[in-house]
Amino acid sequence: MPDKKIIEDHPYIAYNRPILTDTELLKRSQAFYESMDSRRSVREFSNKEVPREVIENLIKTASTAPSGAHKQPWTFCVVSNPEIKKQIRIAAEEEELESYESRMSSDWLEDLKPLGTDWRKPFLETAPYLIIVFRRIYEFGPEGKKKNNYYVQESVGLATGFLLAAIHQAGLVSLTHTPSPMGFLSKTLNRPENEKPFLLIPVGYPADECWVPDLGRKGIDDICAFY
Ligand code: IYR
User: Fold this and answer.
1) Which domain covers residue 173, as residue numbers?
2) Does residue 9 form part of some domain?
3) DSSP alpha helices (H): ranges in the chain?
4) What is the pLDDT of residues 138-185, one digit of tens each?
5) Residue 109 included in any domain
6) How far, in Å, from the CA of 103 to the mean position of ligand 1?
7) Ligand 1 site-directed mutation target among 106, 107, 112, most atoms within 8 Å of CB
8) Most CB atoms within 10 A, among 60, 74, 78, 148?
9) Residue 147 sits in a domain of what CATH number?
10) Residue 152: how many CB atoms within 10 A of its CB?
11) Total domain count, the chain
12) Residue that wins the pLDDT comparison between 142 and 86
């Protein structure tokens, strides 16, 4: 069998994955589940350095996610510069203070109590890296003509999920942070108008003393229906 061919004028490559035994499938799926089940969102970071190449690998992994028409409609901005981290912290805390004091409903604040969050975001300066994920609404085609991307929200959500999994598998921790509104990130990072901020993800090691809420996860019967 050839390993390349042209189908309707487009190049294809043969794709082969080994067929595993049921025992092997079970072992691998169980091991990956157990590893991912030990992932937690962390709010107390160490300032210990992480090599930049590691961060590049994490982002390359995120960018292996599927996307609408394979447009890969994402940009990952990586901030390690202390001055820029400081600017981001100041702007985020300003918005968050307003949110916690007057924009969020009492139900919302009540739901967040077990997580111990508040408007203060010291991790934005402590974590060695902030990865700000932008969704690219459209691209500029020839002569600057706008070309819309497809399923941008879904695609960028998938890429971010891959990123969080990669961070955990590498041995680092992250937080899925949603400063709201996030417009200040476009300004601070001077992003073009076709990009909108999606999530802000501090990445690093946990602080020497790091506590996370004692939360359980829903069981299979609560999240899954077999037909
Ligand atoms: N964006 C705020 C509030 C917040 C909202 C939800 I929903 C969370 O799960 C956690 C926090 C903050 O980052 O504190």
Assistant:
1) 41-206
2) no
3) 22-37, 52-62, 82-98, 106-112, 123-126, 152-170, 183-188, 220-223
4) 999 999 899 999 999 999 999 999 999 999 999 999 999 999 999 999
5) yes
6) 12
7) 112
8) 74
9) 3.40.109.10
10) 20
11) 1
12) 86
